[in-house]
Structure formats: structure tokens, C-alpha cells
Write a structure and sequence with these properties.
Residues 726-791 form the Disease resistance protein winged helix domain. The chain crosses the membrane at residues 13-37. Residues 478-647 form the NB-ARC domain. InterPro entries: Apaf_helical, Disease_R_plants, LRR_dom_sf, LRR_R13L4/SHOC2-like, NB-ARC, P-loop_NTPase, WH-like_DNA-bd_sf, WHD_DRP. The chain is α/β, with parallel strands linked by helices and 1216 residues long. The strands form 7 sheets. Strands 11-12-13-14-15-17-19-20-21-23-25-26-28-30-31-32 form a 16-stranded parallel β-sheet, covered by helices on one side. Strands 4-5-6-3-7 form a 5-stranded parallel β-sheet, sandwiched between helices. The longest helix has 79 residues, at 3-81. It is elongated.
Length: 1216
């Protein structure tokens, strides 16, 4: 019994020890678990931070790799072009520092990705009770991972500093723009969708305000701090994301930052929702509950502030920008608009003035800091105004509003705070017992205001969208796209084949791709396919089946290569309405093989071929619509080149050389783009040297000549040969060329006027891509043209197929200054005597001399005098002296009785010999841009004269004649063949006043006159008798050339009139505002200074053939215009210029259904046209010298109408 207590005590002792040990072990385990938990929470926060930064770094790495890979593909072009020596540097060049950054960053990213596996295991374990069992080993892993994260954070900071110092993001964006400019057109964009704004962002600001308002007693002292540090940046972030809506994010870094911005907004929203419940949960603790709630809220606010600050800080450190590319000139704010204050800006100015006035009453102790704050206010306000006026910033509508609101709020708070401080300071001076010092509190508030202003300035810099001009545009294809899309979408159920025809490299594939991407095509054809065939494809049926099936049919599910049949393709397409592009069909046999795959499914499906041979197109479908793609014009060529080699990269000399070289490319996009590629990135010295060694491609021109040669008539070959008479790279006026061809006899005799036939010949050569159209009018008429340089070189090596163009009959006589581009002469400037001995019986001489001064004129005068005297020039039919400065025409020129063409345009001659009247066979006399005031009376003897061009600006007129004898001679049929009289001037003494009505064959007449009303009545009677007139330009002027009254009768009897221009106040407006006043044949109408007070549109819109309508200064003085439903059925061009009174223009539905070009210039009172969206066919919209509000409204309106998406070009220029 005695032992029992001993055992009992011993048992109790061990039990106690065991209990103590168990408690100790459990406590230790709990401590380890708690430490492990807390360590993991710290690790979690650190890993989340590191993960986001790694995401940004990884995104930038991908951007660097992507732009480098694109650059590498561009560099491969050098070898394909055969000029790799000219492309000695890579398109995208990484320097050693950037390469080192790439390698180091890859290592960091790889390490974090490896550590993520360990972190994910730890994180997964935390979701179950396993963490209780693995607390100790987890703690070691967590500790190790924390050390790795610390090391990684340091390395990340190093890499970010390197990004900022080396401006890697700017390098990537610059390289991306360079690559875009060099890529094939159109760029095959990836499938990135436009950015969509965050769905939750709209309510988060309200929830934050509710959270603050529910606990005003807890955070009353911190409300400004919360507003400035959380609400302000959050407001700016949300506004900025709203402004990003619809923007294509081009880079991975942009996507990563936006994704983190979304996560930040989500996290803050979640935190706000959690904290809204705290005041309710703690309401049972009267004092401690408030204290705990306040501390939790302030801690939460601190976390929100930290997250937002980190988001903006990383954007600043990385230095990347969001980019929006535009396709037309952006709107520039005028100086007046930059300084004009909006209502909100005026409110800011009032508040600033109020603050400045209050400074005068502030205590001296606060003066210095208040002055500093005032200075900062004005500094940020000025920065805000500049940012608001910066080009393109109109896209940041929401951000701009947020900037101004926050600026206003800070100034308002500062005013309230200053009021309170002055009031308290004043009361303290009057109450000496007060012990509180208001300065300490006020000083802290001033610090908050300064901090808020500085952060606002930084965030304004960060929250921007940079506008950059798109450097990969398809220049000069707008009209082509419209025409082809119109043909393809015409409602016809019959299956049909269409074709784009043009030489190699002219842009057929580019045009076809743009047609496929056109929104009207996408709406019309639900299925669209592109099948491209290589140049070397044969007519192997199996090969063609494979190519067609691969590009049309869905890929096999197993991913294996499959053989296809035409039947499979036919069965797949028969139930579909499709547009299929067969690109590069070289031979008729290729089409014959392929057509087995297509059948007429009676649902309006279309085939669009691209081919170099028009006979292939007609073979595919005799009724085929073939669109002949032209060479680019001079301006279009330069625009295309400038995309690849921006003008800022060029010195003045380099630009001059580049323009000459681009001209040598002949308007062929392949040649222009290849040249631009080879020259891109070169400095001035390299640029000039490279230009000397680059030659435009010869192969496409040779192939095109061989393709078209068989279809050219002998007459067309003569016309083409005639270009060889001009210096290389000459820009030749189309009018001059047509007149020369007529004089040379290079036209077939038909029932049409010879001039019209010659124009058709020129059009045909342009369509065959053998002649480049250098400049054209808005209505498509050719102004100037030229033979492509490569084709001219090719022609010089070929044996002339026209034996009539031998050197002894046609002489190009010129002296041309040589340069590094034009290294070859065409012609001769030898001694005149030697030339005359060598070239007897010349039929044509074209003089070219670019020298200044009197020497060229004297030399040419001596040559003519010698040649006429010796008889060597007496067979001359063509004498063209255009651009020769004041050539000395000998009086013996009258001996050249066979002369048909005498060209003196741009010679600045002051007189011509009276012996000109002996040139009885003269057909064309061109005196435009001379100083010849009066033509000799002998001019009336030129019975065969058809075209007479005079200088209207210099008031060229006919010499006065004695009326009686003069009228008798006129009735003797003098000048009976005159068809064109251009630039003539008529006054009371002019014999033309009586002679005009006798010139029955006139087709074109430009006449300026200074006549009283009675004389004008006689003129009006003469005009209505000109039954063959087609083009009529009339100007009523005074001594200074200013518009005067013009009195005309109705012209409706002139049934051939198509082009009418009237300058002067119409005394009989009924000629315009009454449909019987003008003939229905009218296609072009231009009015200037007409002073019409009633809206002319209701009558003019009834002219169903009218295609061009222009209202110039003072033509209409009314306030309103209306284009009604169904009016102007054929109108293609409409221009308003300097209509100062016009305020409203309404376009009703179905008005002007075919309008292509619209131009509004200097109509300062005009509001945005009502019904602008009804102009659905417009391809080009020019706005010039219009109020800023008008341009901004137009841009907004066009965006609403989905204009500017490749279907319409909108140009806004400013003249201030």
C-alpha cells in the first residue's frame, strides 16, 4: 500500500513532464507553422511583385525578338535584289549593351520561371491541410526562395535601370516603324483585336468615395491625402484606359502593362469591397472598434497607393508609349486655338488669380512657400495647356477632362486652405491667449499640394497616345479599289470573272489583297480566298489541284499533306457565295486547267484574276471586266518612297537626288520600294554614293514591252518612238504631246477630231504601262506624262521599228546640264553648221536647253537663221522651242511654209515677226506664258491654223484692224479651221469682237474681256452661234484683273458644251438657277465671283451628266445650300472655296450617289454638313483653312460613319 502512492506520484510526474513536453512541442510546431505562414505571405507578395515585373521584362524581350526577326527577314531582300553590297547594315541593329541586356534578362526570366514551380507547389499546399505536416520543410523552402527572390529583385532593378538608360523601348518602337516602312504592302497584320475598356472600372471611383463618406470621422484628416494619392491616379488610369478603347496594341509590353492596370483596378475594387464591411463589424466596440477600423483603412489605403504608384513608376522607367498610326495628315491646332481657353480652363485661370490675390494677405512666414506653390501652379497649368494643344492629343478626350478636373480640384483646395490659414492667423493675432500655431498644419498641407501637382505633371506625361504617321500605305490605289469593289459587288446572280491587268511589280497582288480586305467586299462575300501562283508554275494539273485545294479547302484534321482534286474544290464552293482571287495567272493554259474547279452556282460568286497579259483576261471571260492598273504619278511615287526614307533623313542635296532617282523608277512600285529599302537608314554621304550605283530594274520593263509589242499598231509604235526625241526623264505636257502627234501625223484619220484620236493613243500607252502618267487632274485627265527611264534605255538599245524616225529627219537639239543621275545625253549640241550639213531636209526640231541667260536664245536664233538661209530647214514641219529663254526668231521664219507646229510656250518672248502670217500650213501656234501683248495682223492669214494658245494673264490680243476691210477678209474664210482659241483678251478695239461669230469650228475658247454691257450683248450673241463649242471659259475683268459684271444669254443651244467656267457677277442668274439656261451636255461647271443669292443646287442637280462642280470665291453669297434626294446623279467632284456667307449645307439621302472627291476650303462660316453620312461613295475629302471646331467635328463625324478605314482619305491642311 505504501508503494502505491510512490507509483502514483511517479506517474503523475511523468505525465506532467510529458504534458509539458507535448505543450512545448505543440507550441514550437504552432510557432513554426505561423512563421511559415507569415513567411509565405511575405513571399507571396514579393513573388507577385516579381512576377509582374518579370511579365513586363518578358514582354519587352518578345518585342525585341519580334522586331529583330522582322528585320532579319527584311535584310534577306538585299540578296534577292542582287544589291546586297548597298545594304551593308542590318535593318535592326542591337548594340553590345542591348545584347548584354537581352542575355541577362533571359537568364532572370528563366530563373523566375524555374522558381515558379516551387512556389506553385507551396501555394497548392496552402489550399489543403498538408501545410500543417510540411510546415518545417516548407519553412526552409520558403526561406531559400525568399533569398532567391531578394537576389532576383536586385537583378530586375538592374535590368530596368538598363532599359531606362539605353532607351530600349524607344529603340524597339523606332525599329518597328522602320520595319513597317520596308515590309510588303499591305502588311499582313496579326489577328490582334482592338483594346476593349475594363468592365469594372466605371463604378470603382464611386465605391471609393462611398467608403470615405461612410467613415468621415475616421479619415477626415487624411481625406485630401487619400484623394490625391489614390482617387486622382485611379481616375487618370481609368480615363486613360477609356481613351485606349479601340486602339490596336502593337507591342507585348503595351499588352502586359494594360493587363496589370486591369489587375490593379480589380485588386483595389476587391479591397474597397472588403473594407466597406469593416465599420459595420467593428461597431460593437465604441472606441477600439473605431481605432482598429481607422488603422486597417489607412493600411489598406497605403497598399492601394503603393500599387498605383508602382504601375505608373514602371511605365516611366520602361519608357514605352502607346502608338496610334494615322493614314492622313493629323489635325494641327492653329495658334489661335492653342491660346483660346475653354470654359473649364477659364475656371482654372479664375481660381489661380484668386489664389494670387490672397497671397497679398498671407502672413510673412508663409510668403516664400506660397510663392513657390504659385509658381508650381502656373508651371503645371502651362504644361497642361501645351499637352492639351499638342498634335493628336484630341484622342485623349477622357484623360484631358481628368487632367483639368484634378488641376481645378487642387487649386480649389489650396484656396480653401489658404483662406482658413489667413483667418486663423488673423484671429490669433487678435487673441493673444491662443496657444495653437496654424503654420505647422498649413505647411504640411502646402507640401501635399506640391506633391499632388508634381505627380499630376508626371502622370500627364505618362498617360499619352503618340500619333505616328503610317509608313506602310498603298499609295494611289484608292480609286482602283473603289472601281473594282463596285464592279464585284454589282448585283448580278451570274457567276463572272474579273481581272486586274498590269506589268510585274505594279501592285496587282497588293490591290487584290486590299480588295479582299475591303469592308464592302467582306459584307458582300462571306467566303473569300486568295490563291497565289509562282511565276514558274507550269500547267501540271496535279500541282494546280494541290495549290488550289491547299488555299481553299479546310486543312486536314490529322495535319498531314493531302492531295486534292478539282471536284473537291467545286463541291466545297458550290453552296457558297465567294470571291476567289487567282493571283499571277501567266498563261491562258493555266486558266483552262483551273476553270474545271469552278461552276456557275447562280449566287453571284466572282473570280478575280491578276495577270500581266490582257489576252489572258479576255480568254478567261470575253465579257470580263479588266482593270488596267496604271503606273504611279510623280507625287504618288515620292509619297511611296518617303514612307521608307522619311524626309527628315534627307539633306537638301540628297532630297534633290532622290527625287530625280524616284522619277527614274518610272512609277513602278517594285522599283521604288526596292530603292527605298536599299537607301533606308543611310546617312547623307552613303545616300548620295548609293544613288550613283543603283539602277532601276530592267527586267519588268523588258517583259512588259514583249507582252504588249504584238498588240501595238504601227501608229502607236510611232507615238511611243516619239518619246525618244525628248531628254531622258522629261516631264511632257499632255497637250503638247498630243499637238505634236497630230502635227507629225501619228494619228489615224477617222470621223473623230484628230486631237481626240491622239488622246486615245496616249491613254492606250498609259494603260499598257509603257508611258507614265506624271500628273493628273481630279477628273482623271492627264496633265503631263513621260517615258519611264528604264524603258527609254531599253528602247535606245533596240532597233527602231519605225524607219521614218531616222536622225536626218528629226532632230532633238539641246544642251542639258549633267548630274550624277542623268549621265547620258540624248541628242546633240554640236556646231550648228556641222548639224545642218549632217541633217538635211529636217522635218522636226525639238530644242532643249536648261541654261539661263540670253546665250541659248541667241545660239538657236543663229541656227535657225543659218538653216533657213541655206535651205536645209525649208522642209521643217515641227519647230518646238518650249522653255528656251527668248529665242531670236529670224524674220525669215516666214519661209518655213511647211511648218505645222510652232511651240513658243514658256519662252517669255515679247514679240513675233509679222512674217508669221506666211506660214500657211501652220496648225498649232502656242504662245502661252510669253510676254507677247499683241499678235500681228498677219495672223488672220493662217487659213489652216487649228490651235492658238495665247497668254491670257498678259492680256494677249489681236492687233486692231480697219473694220470694213477686216470683215471682208474674214468672210473670205480666214481662220476658218480654228478649233482652239485659248487665253485671248478682248476689249472695245479688238477685232476678235467682230470675228468671233465667224469662227464656226471653235471647240475650245478661253476669253477674258473688258467690255461694257452693250458690247457684252454683242459677245453673247456671237457665243450662241458657236455650235461646236465644247469648252468655254469666260472672264469679265477690269484693268486690275478684278471681276466685273458679266451679261450672258442662255447657252442651252450649245448642245456640245461640256465644260463651262464663268468669272464675274452674273447679271442674269437665270442662266444658272434655271435648267433651260445651260445645255444638258454639261459635265463640268466652275463658277467664280458670280454673286448668286439663291441656292443654285435645286436647278444644277437636274443636270444629269454633270460630273464636276466648283464654287469659287464669291460665286454664292447665300447662307444655305441643299442637295436633295436623287440629285446630281453623276457628280464625282464637288468643291467649295471661299464661300464666306455659307453657313449650312444639307445632303439628303441618295444625293450625289457617285461623288468621289469633296473639297471644302476657306468657308469660315460653314457648319458641319447635315447628312454627311449620305455621301457613301466619297473616296477623298480635303479640308483646308477651316475653323478648328469644323475640322474636329468632321473627324468625329467621320469616325462615327466608319470613314478613314482604308476606304476614304481625309486630308486636313492649315493656312494661317
Amino acid at each position: 500500500m505504501a508503494i502505491s502512492p510512490v507509483f502514483s506520484n511517479l506517474f503523475n510526474f511523468y505525465v506532467l513532464d510529458f504534458s509539458i513536453l507535448l505543450i512545448v512541442l505543440l507550441s514550437a510546431l504552432i510557432i513554426i507553422i505561423l512563421r511559415s505562414y507569415r513567411s509565405f505571405q511575405r513571399l507571396k507578395k514579393r513573388f507577385e511583385k516579381v512576377s509582374w515585373e518579370i511579365k513586363l521584362l518578358d514582354a519587352l524581350l518578345k518585342d525585341v525578338e519580334a522586331v529583330s526577326e522582322s528585320g532579319r527577314k527584311i535584310d534577306e531582300k538585299a540578296h534577292q535584289l542582287g544589291n546586297s553590297q548597298l545594304r551593308s547594315v542590318a535593318t535592326v541593329r542591337l548594340n553590345d549593351v542591348t545584347r548584354g541586356w537581352v542575355d541577362a534578362t533571359k537568364t532572370v526570366v528563366r530563373n523566375v520561371q524555374d522558381w515558379r514551380k516551387t512556389y506553385d507547389e507551396l501555394s497548392e499546399r496552402r489550399k489543403s491541410l498538408k501545410w500543417i505536416y510540411f510546415g518545417f520543410p516548407d519553412y526552409k523552402k520558403i526561406h531559400t526562395l525568399q533569398i532567391d527572390m531578394d537576389s532576383c529583385s536586385s537583378e530586375i532593378n538592374v535590368q530596368i535601370v538598363e532599359i531606362h538608360r539605353e532607351q530600349i523601348c524607344k529603340f524597339v518602337e523606332s525599329s518597328r516603324s522602320t520595319v513597317r516602312s520596308l515590309q510588303d504592302r499591305p502588311i499582313e497584320e496579326d489577328k490582334r483585336k482592338p483594346y476593349q475598356k475594363h468592365a469594372k472600372s466605371a463604378s470603382i471611383e464611386k465605391k471609393l468615395k462611398v467608403l470615405i463618406s461612410k467613415t468621415p470621422d475616421l479619415v477626415s484628416e487624411k481625406q485630401k491625402q487619400v484623394a490625391y494619392s489614390i482617387n486622382f491616379p485611379l481616375q487618370l488610369l481609368i480615363a486613360f484606359l477609356q481613351d485606349l478603347e479601340g486602339l490596336i496594341l502593337e507591342s507585348k509590353i503595351e499588352e502586359a502593362w494594360v493587363e496589370e492596370a486591369h489587375d490593379t483596378i480589380d485588386e483595389i475594387q476587391h479591397e474597397i469591397e472588403r473594407k466597406q464591411k469593416i465599420p459595420t463589424l467593428m461597431s460593437w466596440l465604441p472606441y477600439f472598434g473605431n481605432l482598429i477600423t481607422s488603422r486597417k483603412l489607412m493600411k489598406s489605403f497605403s497598399g492601394m497607393e503603393s500599387r498605383l504608384s508602382r504601375l505608373f513608376l514602371r511605365k516611366q522607367e520602361f519608357g514605352f508609349t502607346f502608338v496610334k498610326r494615322y493614314q492622313s495628315q493629323p489635325v494641327h491646332l492653329s495658334p489661335q486655338k492653342q491660346t483660346q481657353a475653354t470654359t473649364l480652363e477659364k475656371n482654372i485661370i479664375v481660381l489661380l488669380d484668386d489664389f494670387s490675390n490672397k497671397l497679398k494677405h498671407a502672413p510673412p512666414v508663409a510668403t516664400y512657400q506660397l510663392k513657390q506653390l504659385e509658381k508650381l501652379f502656373h508651371q503645371v497649368h502651362q504644361f497642361l495647356k501645351e499637352a492639351n494643344a499638342v498634335e493628336g492629343i484630341e484622342n485623349l478626350k477622357n484623360s484631358k477632362a481628368a487632367w483639368k478636373d484634378q488641376m481645378k480640384a487642387i487649386i480649389k483646395d489650396a484656396n480653401i486652405s489658404l483662406d482658413a490659414y489667413i483667418r486663423i492667423s488673423t484671429s490669433k493675432r487678435s487673441n493673444t491667449q491662443s496657444e495653437t500655431d496654424p503654420w505647422q498644419k498649413f505647411s504640411a498641407e502646402l507640401g501635399e499640394f506640391q506633391k499632388a501637382l508634381q505627380l499630376l505633371e508626371v502622370r500627364i506625361k505618362l498617360c499619352r497616345i503618340e500619333l505616328k504617321e503610317e509608313t506602310n500605305l498603298e499609295v494611289g490605289l484608292e480609286e482602283d479599289i473603289h472601281e473594282i469593289v463596285t464592279q464585284l459587288t454589282t448585283k448580278r446572280d451570274r457567276f463572272s470573272t474579273h481581272a486586274i491587268v498590269g506589268m510585274k511589280g505594279i501592285g496587282k497582288t497588293t490591290l487584290a489583297k486590299m480588295v479582299l480586305n475591303n469592308k464592302n467586299i467582306q459584307n458582300h462575300f462571306h467566303y473569300r480566298y486568295l490563291v497565289s501562283l509562282p511565276d514558274s508554275v507550269d500547267d501540271d494539273k496535279n500541282l494546280l489541284q494541290k495549290r488550289l485545294g491547299h488555299d481553299v479547302l479546310p486543312p486536314p484534321e490529322d495535319g498531314k499533306v493531302k492531295d486534292y482534286t478539282f471536284k473537291e474544290v467545286k463541291d466545297f464552293l458550290k453552296a457558297r457565295k465567294y470571291l476567289l482571287v487567282l493571283d499571277n495567272i501567266m498563261r491562258k493554259e493555266t486558266w483552262d486547267t483551273l476553270k474545271e474547279a469552278f461552276l456557275d452556282n447562280k449566287n453571284g460568286s466572282r473570280i478575280l484574276l491578276t495577270t500581266r497579259d490582257k489576252s489572258v483576261a479576255s480568254h478567261a471571260d470575253p465579257s470580263c471586266f479588266s482593270y488596267r492598273l496604271r503606273l504611279r504619278t510623280k507625287d504618288e511615287s515620292w509619297d511611296l518612297f518617303r514612307q521608307m526614307v522619311p524626309e527628315p533623313q534627307l539633306s537638301q542635296e540628297s532630297k534633290r537626288l532622290a527625287e530625280k532617282f524616284v522619277r527614274r523608277c518610272g512609277g513602278l512600285p517594285l522599283s521604288i520600294l526596292s530603292t527605298g529599302y536599299l537607301l533606308s537608314g543611310k546617312d547623307t554621304g552613303e545616300f548620295s554614293r548609293a544613288l550613283e550605283h543603283i539602277n532601276p530594274y530592267q527586267a519588268p520593263w523588258r517583259d512588259n514591252w514583249e507582252t504588249n509589242r504584238k498588240d501595238l499598231s504601227p501608229i502607236l509604235i510611232k507615238c511611243l518612238s516619239h518619246f525618244a526625241q525628248f531628254p531622258k526623264d522629261s516631264e511632257i505636257s499632255a497637250k503638247r504631246l498630243v499637238a505634236l502627234w497630230v502635227a507629225e501625223g501619228f494619228v489615224e484619220q477617222t470621223d473623230k477630231p484628230l486631237e481626240s484620236v491622239a488622246k486615245q493613243n496616249l491613254k492606250h500607252l498609259i494603260e499598257c504601262n509603257l508611258v507614265q502618267e506624271l500628273e493628273r487632274k481630279h477628273n482623271g485627265k492627264v496633265l503631263s506624262c513621260g517615258l519611264p527611264s528604264a524603258l527609254q534605255e531599253l528602247w535606245s538599245r533596240l532597233e527602231s521599228p519605225d524607219s521614218t524616225l531616222s536622225p536626218d529627219q528629226r532632230l532633238p537639239y539641246y544642251f542639258v546640264q549633267m548630274d550624277t543621275i542623268s549621265s547620258q545625253r540624248h541628242g546633240s549640241s554640236l556646231n550648228s553648221r556641222i548639224i545642218l550639213q549632217k541633217c538635211r531636209n529636217l522635218s522636226s526640231i525639238l530644242f532643249f536647253d536648261s541654261r539661263e541667260g540670253d546665250k541659248p536664245g541667241k545660239e538657236i536664233g543663229d541656227f535657225l537663221r543659218m538653216g533657213i538661209a541655206s535651205g536645209h530647214l525649208l522642209h521643217l514641219e515641227i519647230l518646238d522651242l518650249e522653255h528656251i529663254f527668248r529665242p531670236h526668231l529670224p524674220r525669215s521664219i516666214g519661209r518655213l511654209t511647211r511648218l505645222k507646229y510652232l511651240g513658243l510656250r514658256w519662252t517669255y518672248l515679247e514679240e513675233i515677226p509679222s512674217s508669221i502670217g506666211k506660214l500657211v500650213n501652220l496648225q498649232t501656234l502656242d504662245l502661252k506664258h510669253t510676254y507677247i501683248h499683241t499678235l500681228p495682223g498677219s495672223i488672220w492669214k493662217l487659213q489652216n491654223l487649228q490651235n492658238l494658245y495665247m497668254n491670257g494673264i498678259y492680256r494677249s490680243s489681236f492687233a486692231p484692224q480697219q473694220r470694213g476691210n477686216f470683215l471682208d477678209r474674214l468672210r473670205g474664210n480666214l481662220l476658218q479651221n480654228l478649233q482652239v482659241l485659248w487665253g485671248a483678251f478682248m476689249d472695245n478695239d479688238s477685232p476678235l469682237k467682230d470675228a468671233l461669230k465667224l469662227l464656226k469650228n471653235l471647240r475650245k475658247l478661253e476669253l477674258a474681256f473688258q467690255l461694257d454691257l452693250s458690247q457684252q450683248n454683242e459677245l453673247a450673241k456671237s457665243l450662241v452661234e458657236l455650235n461646236h463649242i465644247q469648252t468655254l471659259r469666260l472672264k469679265s475683268i477690269d484693268e486690275m484683273g478684278r471681276p466685273q459684271d458679266i451679261d450672258l444669254n442662255h447657252l442651252s443651244g450649245l448642245v456640245n458644251l461640256s465644260d463651262l467656267y464663268l468669272f464675274g457677277k452674273l447679271l442674269k442668274p437665270s442662266i444658272i438657277v434655271n435648267i433651260i439656261g445651260l445645255p444638258q451636255s454639261l459635265t463640268e461647271l466652275t463658277l467664280s465671283a458670280s454673286q448668286l443669292s439663291n441656292d443654285p443646287m435645286p436647278e444644277l442637280e437636274k443636270f444629269y451628266n454633270l460630273k464636276s462642280l466648283s464654287f469659287f470665291s464669291g460665286s454664292y453669297i447665300g447662307k444655305r445650300m441643299v442637295c436633295s434626294n436623287g440629285g446630281f446623279r453623276q457628280l464625282e467632284f464637288l468643291k467649295f472655296f471661299l464661300l464666306q456667307e455659307l453657313e449650312e449645307w444639307t445632303v439628303e439621302e441618295q444625293a450625289m450617289p457617285h461623288l468621289k472627291r469633296l473639297e471644302i476650303r476657306s468657308c469660315k462660316s460653314l457648319k458641319v454638313p447635315f447628312g454627311l453620312g449620305n455621301l457613301k461613295s466619297v473616296r477623298e475629302f480635303k479640308i483646308e483653312d477651316m475653323p478648328e471646331e469644323f475640322k474636329t467635328s468632321i473627324e468625329k463625324k467621320t469616325k462615327e460613319l466608319n470613314w478613314g478605314e482604308g476606304d476614304i482619305a481625309i486630308f486636313t491642311d492649315n493656312i494661317y
